[in-house]
Amino acid sequence: MTVEYQRRLEKHYDELKWLYCELYPNGQGRFEELCASMEQWYKERNKKWKALDRKREKQKNWYKSQKMLGMMLYIDAFADNISGLEEKLDYLKACNVNYLHLMPFLATPKGKSDGGYAVADYRTVQPSLGTMEDLAALSEKCHDQGMSLCMDFVMNHTSEDHEWARRALAGEKEYQDRYFFFDNYDIPSEYEKTCPQVFPTTAPGNFTWREDCHKFVMTTFYPYQWDLNYANPVVFNEMVNNMLYLVNQGIDIVRIDAVPYIWKQLGTTCRNLPQVHTIVRMMRMICEIVCPGVLLLGEVVMEPEKVVPYFGSVEKPECHMLYNVTTMASTWHTIATADTRLLKHQMDIVTRLPKDYVFLNYLRCHDDIGWGLDEWLKQFGIAEAPHKKYLNDYFRGYVEGSDARGELYNDDPVLQDARLCGTTASLCGLEAAGFEQNEEKTAQAIQRIEMLNAYLFIQSGIPVIYSGDEIGQVNDYSYKESEDYDRRSDSRYIHRGHFRWDLEPAKDKKGTVQNRIFASMKKMEELKFKYRPFDGEADVWTEETYDTALLCVCRKSGNEMVTGIFNFSNEDRTAWIDMGEFTWKDLFTGEKRVLRGVPVPARGYAWYYRKWD
Asked: Is 469 a catalytic residue?
C-alpha cells in the first residue's frame, strides 16, 4: 500500500467502516472485500489521472471556477460515434465548453433502453458508438484541451438484459437477491399503498409479473428496468466496482441517476430515505480515497427542501453538485406568466445556501419539463391542476399570443400532471416565427433566447448548455416516423434530434439566426470569464424591482459588483431599483448610467458593472 493511498484511506476508514457495518450488520467480510477492491482500482489508475487527482486535491474548488461552462449531448446525435465526437472537439472549444456531459453511452438493449438508462453492461460501450478504448482515448484528448468529462451512472436499476437479471430469471437465488423478487402480489401490494408511480400513464405500477419465472419483480421506472436491492452488500460493492472501473477510463464527473430512489423500504414512499444518504456519503469517501479528482453529481428532480440534503453537510459532504431543476422549471413558468414572483422566491432559497453547495443551471436538457409547482403559489389563489394546464397550453401555442411550440409527455388525464417537451428555441417562438417567415417575430424570439441566456449565466452555479441551443436548434419531429416504437412513442425525442451540422457554419455568418444567438452567447461567456463578480465565491441575491415582470439579480465579490435586470414580458417596463448615485457600466452596450428607475425593453436584459476603491 503506497503512502498516498494509506493517507487517504486513514482519513476516511473509521467513518466508512462504521457506515458500512451500520447499513450491513455482520458485513465485516464484505467491507474487507470492498477495501481490497478499492486499493486495486487505485493501483490500476493510470499516472495521468493520479497526477490530476493530486492537482485537484490541492485545488479543491477547481470546479467552482467562473470559467466553468458545460454542454450536454448525445454522442450519436452530435457526431454519430465516439471517434466522430473526438473530431468535433474544436467546435466544443469554440463554444468555450470545458465540462462535457456525455448522455448515456453504455450497452443497452435495442428497443428497451429508455434513452440509454437501462444498462445491460456497465463495462461495455454501446457497439454503435464505439468501444471502451475509444472512450479512454476521447478522455485523453479532452483533458489535453482542458475539458472534463461527465457520464451518467445508472445505479438504481439495470436492464432486464443485464447478466444479473438473466441469471435471476434462470432461477439463481443469489442473483434474484440482487433485485426484488416476490412469489405473489401480497408484498408488492403493500409497497403500492405508499410508493408513488413515476410514469402512471406509460408504465403504471411499481412491479412487473414475469411469466418466465413466475415471479413479480420491482420495476419503479419501466418494466425492463429492474430495481437493484441495495440492502444486499454485494450490490453496493459491485456497483462501486463498476463506478471505479468507469472513472479509471478518464471520467471526471459521475452523475448519479435517480439517486433518491436507491433504497427501498416497505411502508415508505421509497424516496429520499436515510439509507440513500449513507450510500452517497460512502461513495463520496470512496472517491476521495481512490480518485479524489472525481466529482459526484446528484440527479434529484424534486423541490428545494428535498434536493439540498443531497449535498450532505460541510463536515460530511455527499454530492459535490446537484441539478437546479426547480429553477429551470420556474424559468419557463415565468416565460408563460410574465410573473417573476415564484422564480424570485425559489432563487432566494438557493442563494441563501452555503457557497459550498454548487448547482448546475440549465434552460433545457434531454428530459421533459415537470411542473412541480410550489405550494407557495396558493397564497395568490393559483390552483395547481388548472395552472399546469395553462402552462402546457401556452407552450403548445394554444394560448392567444403564444408562439411557443412544444409537446406533452406522459399526459395523465386523472392527475392532470402532464410534462412538457421542446427545445429552448421552439419554446421561445423561433420555430413558429421561421414557419411564418416573420422577421419581427424572429427578432423577438432571439431576444427572448438572449435574455434567458443572460439570466442563466448570472445564476449561482455552473451553466450547462444543451447541445443545439447555441445555434437556436428547433424541434425535430422526425421521431414520429422512427422504426423504433419506443422512440416513436416518446415525445422527449422532439428535443433529442441530431445536431444540425448543415446549419452550424451559419454561426459565423453575420446576421443569420445562428450567428445572432451564437455571438450573443459567446459575448456573455467572455464577460462571465472576465469579471470577478461571476466567481463561484461571490455573494448572490435578488433585489426588489416593484414590477412582477422584472427580475433583478446581483453578484458581488470584493469591491466589484454586477447587477442583472431581466424583463420576462412582451412590454417595455421600468425596474424601480435604487442603487444610489453611483455610475454603472452596461457590459453589453458600454452605456453608463445611475441605477435608479431603470427602463428595460420588452424581453430586454442588461448586466451593469461597478467597481470601487
From this structure: no
